[in-house]
């Protein structure tokens, strides 16, 4: 397992629609393990494969106090409600923005063994599901910002 470099804008891989995983083998398992290590080291709540330069539909999410969720070929199948929240991204360092996200999200995906499952997310988990599936479609949270005054530069940490 390894901690990999996180790609940041304007890296073109972040704007590409990631390819569907057709075979889950040892290379995909290694990718997932490396993504988990990288997400934790960042630290972050989620990470999509394009963020480490791999254009495949794989994402990992770890909400504090919960187990890691691995999503292979995830698709958002239902969204409910709308809420305004602050969001940031490891691939857009130094900024935070106000955007609208769903209150509840349902996603269909495959797990590490290739079994299809469905999962429902609320609050931070719903936000992470939308954020990471957006990455797989070449969309960043800044694309959801309604006006430039909703994006703020964060104070630099020493």
Any overview of this molecule?
- With 158 residues, the chain is α+β, with helices and mostly antiparallel strands.
- It has one domain: Alpha-Beta Complex (Peptide Deformylase).
- Helix content is 19%, strand content 30%.
- The protein has helices at 26-41, 123-136; strands at residues 46-48, 58-61, 69-80, 83-87, 95-101, 104-110, 116-122, 151-153.
- Strands 1-2-3-6-7 form a 5-stranded antiparallel β-sheet, sandwiched between helices. Strands 4-5-8 form a 3-stranded antiparallel β-sheet.
- A hairpin with a 7-residue loop joins β4 and β5 (95-101).
- The protein is globular and about 45 Å long.
- The mean pLDDT is 96.
Can you give keywords for this protein?
158 residues, 3-stranded antiparallel beta sheet, 5-stranded antiparallel beta sheet, Peptide Deformylase, 2 helices, alpha+beta, globular
- Mean pLDDT, to the nearest integer, reads 96
Shape: globular
Question: How many individual helices?
Answer: 2
* Terminal residue distance: 29 Å
The side-by-side strand order for the widest beta sheet comes to 1-2-3-6-7
Largest sheet data: 5 strands, antiparallel
The CATH topology corresponds to Peptide Deformylase
């Amino acid at each position: 397992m390894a901690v990999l470099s996180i790609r940041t804008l304007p890296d073109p891989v972040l704007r590409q629609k990631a390819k569907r995983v057709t075979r889950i083998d040892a290379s995909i398992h290694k990718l997932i393990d490396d993504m988990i290590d990288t997400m934790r080291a960042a630290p972050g709540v989620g990470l999509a494969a394009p963020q480490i330069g791999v254009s495949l539909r794989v994402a990992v999410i770890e909400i504090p106090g919960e187990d890691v969720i691995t999503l292979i070929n995830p698709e958002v199948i239902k969204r409910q409600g709308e809420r305004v929240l602050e969001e940031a991204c490891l691939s857009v360092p130094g900024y935070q923005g106000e955007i609208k996200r769903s209150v509840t999200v349902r996603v269909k995906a495959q797990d590490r063994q290739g079994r299809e499952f469905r999962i429902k997310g609320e609050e931070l988990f719903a936000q992470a599901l939308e954020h990471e599936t957006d990455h797989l479609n070449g969309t960043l949270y800044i694309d959801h910002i309604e006006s430039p005054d909703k994006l703020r530069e964060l104070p630099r940490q020493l």
